[in-house]
Specification:
The complex is a heterodimer of chains A (about 140) and B (about 650). Chain A is an alpha/beta fold. Chain A has five helices and four strands, in the order E-H-E-H-E-H-E-H-H. Chain A is globular. Chain B folds into five domains: about 130 residues, Rossmann fold, CATH 3.40.50; about 150 residues, FAD/NAD(P)-binding domain, CATH 3.50.50; about 60 residues, no CATH class; about 160 residues, 3-Layer(bba) Sandwich (FAD/NAD(P)-binding domain), CATH 3.50.50; about 60 residues, 2-Layer Sandwich (Alpha-Beta Plaits). The chains are: A alpha/beta (about 140), B alpha/beta (about 650). Chains A and B meet through helix 1, strand 2, helix 2 and helix 3 of A and helix 3, helix 4, helix 5, helix 17 and helix 18 of B.
C-alpha cells in the first residue's frame, strides 16, 4: 500500500447527537483527517443497510454510522435499531469478502466533539491498513 | 420541472475564506448538475447577503438553493426564511456545512478547499431532488410545567403566570425555595436571602394561575412541542394537605422530636420524623418522613403514634398512598438546580473525620439566625466560638481530577461569609482565605472584594496540601504563590467551598425529558451564546443551575429568559413543526404492517380499503420524523419527507465518487 492512499469515508450522523458532536469538534477547532463527508439524518435509525452497501459499491472505503448513546435517542430507540442492523450487516459483509471493519458504528453525543475527531482519526488509520475497498471494482 | 439551483458560498468573514478558496469553490459549483448560478458573499446571513439571494432567486428563476456556509444547526431557519422571502417553498434549501465540518478543522488551504468541493457536491446532488414541503401545524395546549421549585423555577413560574399562562410547578421536596432558602445573606449587597425569597414563594402559592405540586416527581413525559403529556407522582405525605394548619403540635409530640438530622440545616440541626423543612416553607404543611418515622421503620410507635394524638385537625393518615396525576401542557421548563460535591472522598481535607471542617452551606446555616445555633458561630465539635476561621476555596473545582469547571459562586460566598463573621465575632477573630484566583466578575462584585481586601483578613494564594486534625486545633500547610513562602496556618474552624456539580440523577432525568447533557453533566443548551435557555428538544427549556453553575442573579435572569422563550410558544394557537414526517405511497404499500412494529409513537395504523386490502396510514400529528418505518418497509412504499431514499442516495453517490 502506498503512503498516499487516502480512504474515502462517508458518515451518517444523527441530527441530535452525532451531527452536533461533529459540529462541536469544529467549533472547538479540534483537528482530524479530512477523509470524512457527513450525511445528516434526523435519526441513526433512518440509516438503511442499503445506503451502506451503496456507498461501498460506489467508491467509499469506509462508512461510519453514529447515533446517540444508549438511552439518549431523541426518538427513543432508533440507535438500537441501527446498532442491531449493523451487527447483522457485518456478518453479511464477511460472507461477501468485504472486511467488516469498513463499517463502523459509534455512539457520539452532542458534547463529544473530541470523541468524533478521535473516531474519525482511528477509522482513517484502520482503513489505511486495510487498503482500498475492492467492491467498487465490481461495478466497473 | 428541471431543477434550477443557485449556490451561495459564504466567506463567513475569515472563518471560511481564510481556509477555503471560495472563488475556486464558486467556479467548481458552476459545473455541477442543475446549478445555474454560483456566487460568493462575505456574510450570506446578513441583510445584504439575504437581499442578494432573494434577487438571484428571482433573476435566475431558481427553484432550489444551496448555501455553502456554517452548520444547518446554526442557520437553517435563517436561510429557510430567506428562501421563502425570495418566493420559494422554504424546504427547497440544502446547506453544505463547510465551516464546522471543514474550515474550522483543517489548516491546509488546499485540503480544506478540496473537502469543501466534495461537501458542496453532495449538497447540490441532494438539492436536485428536493421537493416543496408544507410544515404541519400543531395546536398548542395552553399551560406550562416548571420542574423544580428553587429560585429559578419560582421566577419562571411567576413570569409565565403574570403573562396569563397556567403553570404547574412541580417540586420534589416538601417545600419550594430550593438552595436559596438555605442562605443567610446574598452577595454582594448583603440582602437577607429569606427577605427577598419568601415574598416570591408566597406569591407562587397565592397566584391563581399557578398550581403547586410539592413532594411530587415527574415520572414520564410524552408528546412534543405544544402537546406534552406529563405524569407526576404525588408522594404520600401521610398528612391531609388541606386540613393541616401547620400548627406543629405533631412535630413537638413526635417520639423522635429533635432526633433526626435536619437536611435543611445540613445535618447541623435536628428535626422530628414529622416536619416542615423550615419555618417559611410553602406550603406551610407537615410531612411524615417515611425513612425515619417509627410507624414505617418499626411498624409501631410505642403505644400509639403521638402525632395523631397531638394533631387538633385529625390530619394524619398512615394509609395514604402515592397518587399519580396526568397533566397536559404546551411547554416545559426544567429548573432542577445543582448538587454540591461531597468532599468526604477527598481525604486531604479531613472533612469526613473532623467535625470542625465544614462546608459553605453548613457555615451558611450557622450564620443564619433561623439556623440550628440561632445565628451563633459555634464549632460543631465543642460548641465554642472559634478564634480563627479558614476558608479553603476551589475544593474539587478547577481541578482536572474532580471538576474542571469554576463553581462561579465560591469566591464571592467566602468573601461574604468572611465579612459576616467579622460582623458577628468582632474584629478579633482571625480569618484566612486560601484561594486560587478571586473571581469577582459580576456587577458590584469587584467593589465588594476590594472592601473585604481592605479588612483585617489574611489572603493566601494557593491550595493547601492537607488539613491536619490536632485535636485542639487544625493545621494547614499552604504555599503562598504571591510571596513564594510556605505558611503553616493554625485555625479552629475550616470552611470548604466544594464544587457545584450536576444533580446526581441528571443522567436519568435528561433521558426522561429527552434532552442532552454537556460533557460536565449539566443540561445542554441549544447554543451557548444565542439559545442558552433552549434545548435541542423543541418546547423544552432550561433555567438556572441545571444548565451550569449560577449565582442567584444569573439564575433569575436565566429563568426569566426561559419563561419568555416558553411564552413565545404559548402565545400562539398553532405552532409550525418540521415537515420531515413519513408518507405512504399507497400504490406500493402491501399492508404488511412491518412499519407499525417499529414506530415508537404509534403513529401508523392500517386502513381497510374498498377492495378489502389494507394500507398503512401515518398520523402526521403523531409522527416525529425518525424514519425508522422507511428503513423497515420492504416495498419502498414508506418515505420520509426531506430524507427520501433517492435524496440520500444521490448524496451518497456524490460523496463516494472518485475525483
Amino acid at each position: 500500500m502506498t503512503d498516499s492512499y487516502e480512504p474515502n469515508i462517508i458518515a451518517f450522523l444523527c441530527n441530535w447527537c452525532s451531527y452536533a458532536g461533529s459540529d462541536l469538534a469544529g467549533t472547538s477547532r479540534i483537528k482530524y483527517p479530512p477523509n470524512v463527508r457527513s450525511i445528516r439524518v434526523m435519526c441513526s435509525g433512518r440509516v438503511d443497510t442499503s445506503f451502506i452497501l451503496r456507498a461501498l459499491k460506489k467508491g467509499a472505503d469506509g462508512v461510519l454510522i453514529a447515533g446517540c448513546h444508549p438511552g439518549d435517542c431523541h426518538y427513543q430507540s432508533g440507535n438500537y435499531k441501527t446498532n442491531r442492523r449493523i451487527i447483522l450487516l457485518k456478518k453479511l459483509l464477511d460472507q461477501l469478502g468485504i472486511d467488516e471493519k469498513r463499517v463502523r458504528f459509534d455512539y457520539i453525543s452532542a458534547s463529544e466533539g473530541q470523541k468524533f475527531a478521535d473516531v474519525v482519526t482511528e477509522f482513517v488509520n484502520e482503513l489505511k491498513e486495510i487498503g482500498p475497498c475492492t467492491l467498487k471494482e465490481v461495478e466497473q | 420541472m428541471a431543477k434550477r439551483i443557485g449556490v451561495f458560498i459564504c466567506h463567513c468573514g475569515e472563518n471560511i475564506a481564510s481556509k477555503v478558496d471560495v472563488e475556486q469553490l464558486r467556479k467548481y459549483a458552476e459545473n455541477l448538475d442543475n446549478v445555474v448560478v454560483s456566487k460568493t458573499h462575505k456574510y450570506i446571513c446578513s441583510e445584504g447577503g439575504a437581499n442578494e439571494i432573494k434577487e438571484t432567486i428571482k433573476k435566475y428563476k431558481l427553484n432550489g438553493l444551496v448555501t455553502a456556509s456554517c452548520s444547518p444547526r446554526m442557520h437553517e431557519h435563517t436561510f429557510r426564511k430567506i428562501v421563502k422571502d425570495g418566493g420559494l417553498n422554504p424546504f427547497n434549501l440544502e446547506i453544505a456545512n463547510i465551516r464546522e465540518q471543514c474550515s474550522w478543522i483543517h489548516d491546509d488551504r488546499k485540503i480544506a478547499t478540496t473537502k469543501a468541493k466534495k461537501i458542496l457536491r453532495g449538497a447540490v446532488a441532494k438539492a436536485g431532488l428536493l421537493e416543496s414541503l408544507v410544515a404541519p401545524k400543531v395546536k398548542v395546549k395552553p399551560g406550562a410545567m416548571v420542574i423544580g421549585g428553587g429560585i429559578a423555577g419560582i421566577q419562571s413560574a411567576l413570569d409565565l403566570a403574570e403573562k396569563g399562562h397556567k403553570v404547574y410547578l412541580v417540586e420534589k421536596s416538601p417545600t419550594i425555595g430550593g438552595r436559596m432558602a438555605q442562605l443567610d445573606k446574598t452577595f454582594p449587597t448583603l440582602d437577607c436571602s429569606g427577605c427577598i425569597l419568601t415574598p416570591k414563594m408566597k406569591e407562587v402559592s397565592s397566584n391563581p394561575n399557578i398550581t403547586l405540586l410539592t413532594y411530587s416527581e415527574v415520572t414520564n413525559i410524552e408528546g412534543s412541542i405544544g402537546n406534552y403529556n406529563v405524569n407526576v407522582k404525588k408522594k404520600a405525605r401521610y398528612v391531609d394537605l388541606k386540613a393541616c394548619k401547620g400548627c406543629g403540635d405533631c412535630a413537638v409530640a413526635c417520639r423522635l422530636h429533635d432526633r433526626i438530622d435536619c437536611e435543611f440545616d445540613m445535618g447541623l440541626g435536628k428535626r422530628s420524623a414529622i416536619y416542615v423543612p423550615f419555618a417559611q416553607a410553602i406550603p406551610p404543611k407537615y410531612t411524615i418522613d417515611k425513612d425515619t418515622c417509627l410507624m414505617f421503620t418499626k411498624g409501631k410507635c410505642g403505644t400509639g403514634p403521638l402525632c395523631v394524638e397531638a394533631c387538633p385537625e385529625n390530619c394524619i393518615d398512615f394509609k395514604q398512598k402515592d397518587t399519580e396525576v396526568n397533566i397536559e401542557v404546551g411547554v416545559i421548563i426544567v429548573a432542577t438546580g445543582y448538587d454540591v460535591l461531597d468532599p468526604s472522598a477527598m481525604n486531604e481535607y479531613s472533612y469526613a473525620n473532623c467535625k470542625d471542617v465544614i462546608t459553605t452551606l453548613e457555615m451558611e446555616r450557622l450564620i443564619s439566625s433561623a439556623g440550628p445555633t440561632d445565628g451563633k458561630i459555634l464549632k460543631p465539635s465543642n460548641g465554642e466560638e472559634p478564634k480563627s476561621v479558614t476558608f479553603l476555596l476551589c475544593v474539587g473545582s478547577r481541578d482536572e481530577t474532580e471538576c474542571s469547571w469554576c463553581c462561579r459562586i465560591g469566591c464571592m460566598s467566602a468573601l461574604k461569609q468572611a465579612y459576616l463573621l467579622k460582623e458577628k465575632l468582632g474584629d478579633k477573630v482571625e480569618i484566612n482565605i486560601c484561594y486560587t484566583d478571586i473571581r469577582s466578575f459580576g456587577k458590584g462584585y469587584e467593589e465588594f472584594y476590594r472592601k473585604i481586601r481592605g479588612m483585617n483578613i489574611n489572603f493566601f494564594r494557593g491550595r493547601p496540601s492537607e488539613v491536619k486534625d490536632n485535636k485542639e486545633n487544625l493545621k494547614i500547610d499552604i504555599f503562598d504563590t504571591t510571596t513564594n513562602k510556605l505558611f503553616e496556618i493554625t485555625t479552629d474552624l475550616v470552611v470548604l467551598t466544594p464544587a457545584i456539580v450536576p444533580r446526581d440523577d441528571a443522567d436519568v432525568f435528561s433521558r426522561l425529558v429527552r434532552i442532552s447533557q454537556s460533557a460536565d453533566g449539566f443540561l445542554l443548551e441549544a447554543h451557548p451564546k444565542l439559545r442558552p435557555m433552549d434545548t435541542f428538544t423543541s418546547g423544552i427549556f432550561i433555567a438556572g443551575s441545571c444548565q451550569g453553575p449560577k449565582d442567584v442573579q444569573d439564575s433569575v435572569a436565566h429563568a426569566s429568559g426561559a419563561a419568555s422563550r416558553a411564552a413565545n410558544i404559548l402565545s400562539k394557537e398553532e405552532y409550525e413543526t418540521e415537515p420531515f414526517i413519513s408518507i405512504v405511497n399507497e400504490d406500493l404499500c402491501s399492508g404488511c404492517a412491518t412499519c407499525i412494529s417499529v414506530c415508537p409513537y404509534d403513529a401508523i395504523t392500517l386502513e381497510k380499503q374498498k377492495d378489502d386490502t389494507s394500507i398503512a396510514k401515518v398520523d402526521e400529528t403523531l409522527c416525529m420524523g425518525c424514519g425508522a418505518c422507511v428503513v423497515a418497509c420492504p416495498s419502498g412504499a414508506m418515505q420520509q419527507q426531506g430524507f427520501k431514499d433517492k435524496q440520500i442516495l444521490a448524496m451518497i453517490d456524490a460523496y463516494a465518487k472518485e475525483d
